[in-house]
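Morning F.,

Quick status update on the modeling queue. The single chain you submitted on Monday has been processed. Sequence for confirmation:
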Amino acid sequence: MAAELHPRSGKLVGLSNSNRTARRNQPVQEFNHGLVLSKEPLRDRDVFTVRIDKKVNSWSGSIEIGVTTLDPALLDFPSSATGLKGGSWIVSGCSVLRDGRSVLEEYGRDLDQLAEGDRVGIQRSSRGELHLWVNGQDCGPAASGLPPKLWAVVDLYGKCTQVTVVSCEPPLPSAERETVVRDEEEEEEEEEEEEEEDAVVCGVREDAGITALMNVAAMNGVMMGDEVPELSCGHSRPDKFPNNLEPDAVLTEHQLFDVFNNAIVSFYRAEDEGGGEEEGGGGGTGGSGAPGSDLSSSRNDARSGSRGGPSSNDSGTGAGDAGNAGSTGNANSGAGGGSGAAAGGLTTNDALLFHEKCGTLIKLSNNNKTAERRRPLDEFNNGVVMTNRPLRHNEMFEIRIDKLVDKWSGSIEIGVTTHIPNNLDYPATMTNLRSGTIMMSGCGILTNGKGTRREYCEFSLDELQEGDHIGLMRKASGALHFYINGIDQGVAAAQTPGVVYGVVDLYGMAVKVTIVHNHNHSERLRRNNAIMRAMSPDVGRPRPTLTPDSDAPERLLFHANCGQKAAIISEGRTALRPHATDDFNHGVVLSSRPLRSNEVFQVRIDKMVDKWAGSIEIGVTTHNPAFLQLPSTMTNLRSGTWMMTGNGVMHNGTTILDEYGHNLDRLKAGDTVGVVRKEDSSLHFFVNGIAQGPAAWNVPPNVYAVVDLYGQAAQATIMDDMVDLPPLPEDSSEGPTAMSPGSPCSVLGASAATDLRFHHLHGTNAVITNGGRTALRQNCRSEFNDAIVISNRCLRDGELFEIIIQKMVDRWSGSIEAGVTAIRPEELEFPNTMTDIDYDTWMLSGTAIMQDGNTMRNNYGCDLDSLTSGSRIGMMRSAVGDLHYYINGVDQGIACSGLPPEVFAVIDLYGQCVQVSITSSSGPLDNSLCTSNVTEKSFPIHSPAGVAHRLHGKHGKNVVLLGEGCQAVRVGGYAHGIVFSAKELKVDELFEVRIADVDEQWCGSLHVGLTTLPPPELPSCPLSGFSPSLPQLRAKVTWLLCGSEVRRNGVLQRQNYGRSLDRLTVGNRVGVKRCSDDTMHIFIDGEDMGPAATAVAKKVYAVLDLYGRITAVSIVSSTLPEDADGVKAPSLSSGSCSEGEEDSTPVREAAGEPCATAPTAMAFLENHGKNIQLSNQKLTAARVSSYNQGLLVTAQPLTTQQLFQFQIDRLNPSWTSSLSLGVIGHSPDRLNFPSTACCLKRSAWLLQRDSIFHNSLKICENYGPNLDTCPEGTVLGLLVDANSCLHLYVNGMDQGVAAQDIPSPCYPFIDLYGQCEQVTIIVDSIPAAGGEDDDGRCQGDMEKADVVDGIKESVCWTPPPDVSPNKSCEYQGLCSRFKDLLTLPDGYFSEDAKYNLCYCESCRKLRGDEPYYKRGEPPRDYALPFGWCCFALRIKSHCEVSNALKKWHIAYHGTSVGALRRTLDHSQLLPGTSSVFSVAPAKAEGPDGYGDPEENSAPGREVLRVRLSPTMRYSGLETFAPKVQFRDPRSHRRHQAQVGFQVCVRPGSYKAGPQQTLGHGEPLDPRFSNSEIEWVTKEQGGTLLYGLLVRVE
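Structure tokens below.
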């Protein structure tokens, strides 16, 4: 077979060298699309071998190799090899995947660790097995049962950028047979050499321990009856070792470990007591040691190195000399030890210590084994220490972190250097050294101060805690390895010089470390056993009988080896953290033996503390507890571990399921958690006895149960025998004692769980997760059916079962099907699709209602095949037996009748629909839901605590009101701009506006105050005879502020009151409040200027005067709720945007909603990203350099119902992307701030762009506006409601639920990334401690969110003069470039670009637009043109501006590009334009009354009519607005565009009727029926153009 690559390859691959070399183009910008295949299929036993030519360090991951049955000539190449389906086996890293799914997790060499020049090959053996070859070595079979015709696959992925095919031949005849055997022999020899050398380095070989182990081994039959050699050691046999064991006794693994453990304890106790009578301690001569000597040091420093030296005096003498020598390292061996040393023994300076020469701030202690940085709160560097001698081959240099401080960023760094300590001029930090140095810093590797590997391992040294261990080893091959908590992180550097010293840099947070020698693991075990003995006298003693009962299964207990801060009591049944209020981690405990298949390991939480965040975690691991060096938390373990933490599941420290089941962080004392590995290798968890569903698959057998007593969890007991289960401690919880619903210790546990869930019985391809709330179809790209799920109980009358579509694929036709069935789940044999059932089943499929598999009705009113991700589907059986469907909360009407009383909800995850979740709206149906028109995602809508203020319709003659009375514009002159609040102000109610526009040609400024003049008593508007300015208003008593002067009825009362209103500019806020003490207060930018006037009347209105420079204002405040002292419970709202009343508005949630607990003022934490600078009393944060390292966290937790708001102050357009925000569920005091918020992987919820992430994994898309488009001045907020749901607020508008099950307390964080450089916390958005709101506003620092489509529309935020909002929206820019291509004169359009509105998904969410509004007299509905971009037109002077804005209706007209110029020339829609179907003669109308000739018209005369519509879903059809193609001048991509107009229509000039052009069909808009969707007008001058609409696809 030719060793060549197929000419067809991935789109970024370039072939050369006769198709033998493949290179991935753009290797620094792109990491995938590098797939290549062999030119011909592989022959059996041929090894297709490639050499890695080039690698880059920009990415993680590397080369992937395997085989596939897919012919490369016909293959549609995916982005990576793991995307190959239909018979593909790929080796990726150290895992084997079949068709993209892992079948073997730990296999062979890790391909990610291969370097340039390494060779890797793939082979199909003659037996149909897949073999991987690395550098000529066979890694063994990776898979079996392979088909005969296979092509080799190589993926130039991640770091790997170029490979060359070197051969495709069978291996040498002997290689295939002997490679594996030779590897095993070499590994055994290497391990023996390492063990011997380790024993020499450490001095003595743990004589007593080895003695005990050898004796136990003999008794266990290991020696097979051979005589056990007498070991010559300096210690007597341990007194704890049992003497009654017979040589033929067989011990279980647990019993063997107990014996060995007790021997170690006895050994160290003897040493602590000064040794035995004759041979204890250090021997006869030096047993006691010199005064002040360190016993452990002497044991390591002065042992005889002779392998066969039997004399105890040799060892003893050496020890004695070591004691006298101390730490000088200059003393010679004792007399007896001299020959031993000559034979290869070590002198006193052979133990690894820190060198006496070190950094300027380092203090050495503990015989130079401990190093500490002085003044850790004042200095962060100059803390370099090195070893006293070079490291030997395969010698472990390990340290323990003893102390950290929270002040700095960055932490410990460790590595090796060729520099000799005595000759080195120590730098401030070791990474400043530019020669002979390799350091691990963070999670990367730096060589000579420059980064060579950005992501060496998944651990980061910056995230380690006190008690964690870090080690390194230079292998005999020259490879450098790092170890974290005993776990090898792999090769950090392939070739390291032969002579290197260990080096540690106590940088930043790291203050103190200690060198760890090999016996320290036993010391930790001894310390744990000491705690155990103190709490239970029986712990640590041999069991009465060591002969196991073969009939009785061994009882599940906790293993004696546990975390540093944990202890085991009650004969191994109970684990606890004795000092739970002082430490929150190091509480890991494991089971004493592996779990059997289907064996449930269950524990009860006995005791909780309230001090910490987080709680118990449970899972399984493949690691044997007898040999595992336990980490601080089990989720830090990066191999062989599955853990349930919170409500997610993590595998090897990485989250694999986000929303899995009941949140463990919410459990109370008395609750139970359990885990089981089933026979099918699946892993399941239990909470209070309730199964949470499968959490993982392919879990290997013989796994140990793990419990991590983390955070609040302080004590837990194994529940294997309920009869003698100990009672709960009296102080079982330092917090609330209430138990969770469903707790076995709760009387109500049996009946508490009544929520609707998916049943555990389901179709073959369906998977139920998230505690029964989520269903998904596995293998969604290869399977399209067999995924039926059903409710766990029958529906009650009037109960809504609603789900939200979370994930879809575009591979299949058809989509979700939903309905009900009277068949019980236990009796249902799940078919391929639910429509195959021929009895007692009613389903909606597409638009068809089907009963028992037969179509009984078509065109029901909704099409399930047209739904997308985020859509909601609900089913409800009414009390009379009618079936109703709800789409996005809107009732679609009766689907069928006569349903039996007990029916179950059914969902068929068919075709494109992959994943759904039950929403919180499921349950008894609210009446308001029947008329809901909410089109956002399925999240609960909360009742508003206040409604936005309005301006009264009576106002000065030069004023025009916009935005449903929330905006006021002075359209002429400098006076006659008085406006009033629509209603009287309540006590302590703030009425606040923002300056929207100024005109510098005038002098003077805004006047603001209170008046007793009721606006309803004024004459009709416009008030031509009204006072031109507020100081002249004297009809009633008026108090006002002019500049800095306070006046009453125009008479000066006070001068120099506060900040002058004459200095106001765009963006400033001004407010007025009547307080409970009858005083008037003025607020400027949220700051109270103090009392301005006293003895103010009770019933007053707010009054403003748009005078002089100030020409436009927008309201940013809200009315106070009627019940200001109570908490509004969340409730469903219809969301209908009816605005028939003057003060009605779309539903929104108030930020100032009172809460049960008084919130505290928020400020940023002093600890933050290294590029952050705080100011303004820690309320303002600015990023001072770079684009990242800008993470901020608040110092105070976010309480329930408290709105945390901040404003974007400054953006830098030089960068891309922008800020992100979210909350963390643990205290930030010990948080190690990563470079970006994306790296937060524990209890973190992040909102970035328009997506939501949990622990760095995306859980939701298309949520809210795109945060990257928020301009300066945008106000963002976070709130956690009473249901523990997280909400995002944009300019005061609630964007709905972003995430659920947020822990309490939680802390908000902000990442000043990319463009966003400065933010400021808004302090006046926080309610007072008394539960009342200072200002009563619901959106704090924002403008009215309702968009009014008038002549000059304004977005909810007014941009500063120097920033155009157009810059932030790519879609608006694209539409603008298309408009420029039309070459329309600029004179047609408004000069102020800020009135051009984009209605794309992100912009409309940013403003908080509702889909429908009312306008005109009488009011009439119209829809906002979502998906279009509106360019404001210039209004001719002859138009009646005010009348058109206030009394005319809003409509839309689709037209063609060719008709635009003529329409604009006439400033109105005219008959005879070239728009297709836009006009029609009257005689062409049907006999519906629209074709009747008008009175007094000549017979037969054609009256041309113009067709309009209140929604662009109709006017924007291609029939009316034909598409045209154009090429974008910036991107040079082709697009299609449509155009139309937004118009004002005079009431009475048109008739609304059914659509005539397209015929009758399904409703195009849910708000408008087909009988009123088309408006026809024949009157010239009856329409007014004020917006050009453009849509681009």
